[in-house]
Specification:
Two copies of one chain form a homodimer. The first copy, chain A, has twelve helices and eleven strands. With about 350 residues, chain A is an alpha/beta fold. Chain A has three domains: about 10-50, 434 Repressor (Amino-terminal Domain) (Orthogonal Bundle); about 55-165 and about 300-325, Response regulator (Rossmann fold), CATH 3.40.50.2300; about 165-295, Response regulator (Rossmann fold, 3-Layer(aba) Sandwich), CATH 3.40.50.2300. In chain A, strand 6 (about 185-190), helix 9 (about 195-210) and strand 7 (about 220) form a beta-alpha-beta unit. In chain A, helix 5 packs across helix 12, helix 6 (about 110-115) runs parallel beside helix 7 (about 135-145) and helix 8 runs parallel beside helix 9. The longest helix of chain A has 16 residues, at about 75-90. Chain A is elongated. At the A-B interface, helix 4, helix 5, strand 2, helix 6 and helix 11 of A face helix 4, helix 5, strand 2, helix 6 and helix 11 of B. Chain A binds a DNA duplex (16 and 16 nucleotides) through helix 2 and helix 4. Chains A, B: It comes from Pseudonocardia sulfidoxydans NBRC 16205. Chains A, B: Keywords: DNA-binding, Transcription, Transcription regulation.
Chain lengths: ~350, ~350
DNA sequence: TTGTATGCGTTATCAC
DNA sequence: GTGATAACGCATACAA
C-alpha cells in the first residue's frame, strides 16, 4: 500500500480544466456553474476518488461538525441506548460523535473543556448519570454549548432533556401500593443526583396519596450500583421479619438486581416473600427471573432529542423545548401481593 | 454568552512579545527557547485561556488524531466493553474516538470509507460482530489502516485482534461432556462469521475427543440474536422427549438466554431438564437464574489491544502481533448432569 | 458565469 | 536562539 497523496481540489480542477473555485462551487452549491462544466467536475471527482479534506473545511468554516458525548459507562444499557439516539440524530445531519468516557487519570471536566476549546468538537452532550458532577459543568458550558441528558442543575438553567421521573416514580409506587403493600422501603440513588431526587419525590407522592406518611418509609442510600442494592437488602434482612418491608422500591434496575440477588442468597423468593421494583427498564431486566417490574425511560428518544437541541443551539435556532418525555411503568413479575395476605 | 473569538497563536505571541514561531516552539518543544521567554509565553497562554486549534493542526500535520470505531450495536455489552478498551487506549495518547454505528439509511462501508478518505479519522477499528461484512472491508482498508476485532477474513490478512474462540468452544463443550451428557445440540451463529465458525469448530473437537461423532450432533443455525435462540429451542422441543438433547451449546449468550426463556415457557427447568451453555459471558449472564455457564472473552483487552495495533500501524511501527487472547470458561449453574442419571 | 487572490491557525524551513 | 514566511486544502469576496 504505497499510500499516494490524496487528491485535492486543485487536482480536480486541473483534471476538469476549470478553476479551483468552480470545483468549490459544485461541491457546495455555493455558486452558479454551467451544466457542462459541472459534469466535468463531477467526473473528475469520481475519477480521482476525491473527497474534501475535512480538516481544511473545519478550519475555514470554524466548525468541526463534530460533537462530544460524555457518558459515565457504556456497559449500562441505558447509556448505550441514549448514545445510539445521539448517534442517529447526528449522522442524519452528517455530524460526527466522539465518545468521551471518564478517564480515571485526569479531572474529567478539564479534559472535556480542553476538547471544546480546541474546536475539535462544537458542542457537548452530557450524561452525568452516576457520579456527582457539580458546578464544573457550568464552567464547561462557558466554552461552548452543552446539553444535559437525564439531569438538571437546579438554579442554573442549562438546556436539558429529561423524562418525567417523578411521575414514573409515583406510578410504580402506586402500582406496588395497589397490591396492598403497607410496609415499604426505598433504596434510593445518590442524593445529589437529580434523577434520584425526582424518583424519590415521586415515591413519596404516591405514599401520601395512599395515606402513608412518606417520612415513615425508610430510605436506604444507594449509589445506583448493584452492590449497593445488595447491601441495602442485607441491611433490611438483618431486621426481624415482622418489621421488614414487604416491598422494595429501588431507584434503578441495577440496585434492584442486587437486592434480588441478596434475597435469593438468603433463601427468600421474589415476589413471594418480598416484592421488588426497579427503575430504568434495562433490556436485561425483562430477562430476569422473575422479570423485573420497572419504569421505562425512552433512552433512545432522549438521546435523539438532546442531539437535536444541541444542533439547534449550534445553528442559532430556538431549541425545541417541549416538556419532559414520558416514563412508563412496565408491570412484570417481581411485584406481587404481600406475604401476609 | 457573547462567544468572543477564541485566541490564536498570534494573540499569544503579541501578549508575550515574541514571534509566532516561538509560541509554536514552546507548544511542541520543537525548538530551543530561552527560559525567560518560555515563561512569558506560558503565562500568556494561561492568561488568554488559549488552546490550539486542532483543525489547523490536523491540516498541517495531515493527521486528525482521531480514529473511528465501528460497532454493530452498543447495547450489546460485549461491544460496549470493547469500545471502552479502545477508548482508554486512545485517550492515553490523546486520540479521539468517533463512534460509527450502522445506519440503516445507507451502505455502511461506503460512509465509513468516505470518513476515512475525508481525513477526519486516521484509521478504523472494525467490529463486525454480527452481520455479514464481506470483502467490502477490504475496500475500506485501501483508504487507510483498518484493524478487525473478534473477526478474521480468511485469505486476506488484515490485522486483527481476536481471542481463542476455538479453544473456548472446545473447553465449554468439554465441561458439558464432563457432566456425562451424550446427546447434545448446538445453536450456532451466522455461518459466515469467523467467530461462529471457530466456536463450532471448538465444540466439534471436544465431541471428537469424547468419542462422539461430531457430525451426529445437530446444529441449529442462529443469528446471534435472542429470538433465534428461542426459535431453535422451540424446534428442539417439538421432538419427542426421548430424542431431545440433554444439553444445548449456544454460540453466544443472547441465544442461550432466548433458549432458556423458551424452556421456561414450556415448563422445563434449567439445568434440571436441560443444560444450557453460552458464549461471551456478558455481564448480565451472571445475573440470570440460573446463572449462565459461558465463555469469557477479554472484551476490554481486545479493544485496548486493537487500538494499540492501529496506532502502531499509523506511526509506521511494527504492530504487536502476539497471538490470540485467552477465552476462559466460566462455570455457573446452567449446566448440570443430564436428567436420566 | 468564472477565475484570482486572500485568509483560516499551525507547523516547519530557513535565514538572521 | 529567534523570527519572517511559505505551505496545508478549502471557501469566498471581488474582479473579470
Amino acid at each position: 500500500m504505497v499510500s499516494r497523496r490524496r487528491p485535492t481540489m486543485k487536482d480536480v480542477a486541473e483534471h476538469a480544466n476549470v478553476s479551483i473555485s468552480t470545483v468549490s462551487y459544485v461541491l457546495n452549491d455555493s455558486g452558479p456553474v454551467a451544466a457542462e462544466r459541472r459534469n466535468r467536475v463531477l467526473d473528475a471527482i469520481r475519477l480521482l476518488d476525491y473527497s474534501p479534506n475535512e480538516s481544511a473545511r473545519s478550519l475555514k468554516r470554524r466548525s468541526a461538525s463534530t460533537v462530544a458525548m460524555v457518558v459515565p459507562d457504556l456497559t449500562n444499557q441505558f447509556f448505550a441506548m441514549v448514545a445510539e439516539g445521539v448517534h442517529r440524530a447526528a449522522s442524519a445531519v452528517d455530524v460526527l460523535v466522539v465518545l468521551v468516557l471518564p478517564d480515571a487519570t485526569e479531572l474529567p471536566e478539564e479534559s472535556q473543556a480542553k476538547l471544546l476549546r480546541s474546536q475539535r468538537v462544537d458542542g457537548v452532550i452530557y450524561l452525568s448519570g452516576t457520579g456527582s458532577m457539580p458546578a464544573a459543568i457550568y464552567d464547561l458550558a462557558r466554552s461552548g454549548p452543552v446539553v444535559l441528558v437525564d439531569e438538571q442543575i437546579p438554579g442554573r438553567d442549562l438546556p436539558a432533556v429529561v423524562c418525567d421521573s417523578r411521575r414514573g416514580g409515583r406510578e410504580v409506587a402506586a402500582h406496588v401500593l395497589a397490591q396492598d403493600h403497607r410496609r415499604l422501603a426505598v433504596v434510593g440513588g445518590p442524593p445529589a443526583l437529580w434523577t434520584a431526587q425526582q424518583r424519590l419525590a415521586g415515591y413519596r407522592e404516591a405514599f401520601a396519596g395512599a395515606g402513608i406518611d412518606p417520612d415513615s418509609v425508610p430510605v436506604f442510600a444507594g449509589d445506583y450500583r448493584q452492590e449497593s442494592g445488595y447491601a441495602a437488602a442485607t441491611e433490611i434482612l438483618s431486621r426481624p421479619e415482622s418489621e421488614r418491608p414487604t416491598a422494595l422500591l429501588c431507584a434503578n434496575d441495577l440496585m434492584a438486581i442486587g437486592a434480588m440477588q441478596c434475597l435469593r442468597d438468603n433463601g427468600l423468593s421474589v415476589p413471594g416473600d418480598m416484592s421488588v421494583a426497579g427503575f430504568d427498564d434495562q433490556p436485561i431486566s425483562s430477562m430476569l427471573t422473575p422479570a423485573l417490574t420497572s419504569v421505562r425511560q425512552p433512552a433512545y428518544d432522549m438521546g435523539h432529542r438532546a442531539a437535536r437541541v444541541l444542533f439547534d443551539l449550534l445553528e442559532g435556532r430556538e431549541p425545541d423545548t417541549t416538556g419532559p418525555l414520558p416514563a412508563e411503568v412496565r408491570i412484570r413479575d417481581s411485584v406481587g401481593p404481600p406475604k401476609e395476605l
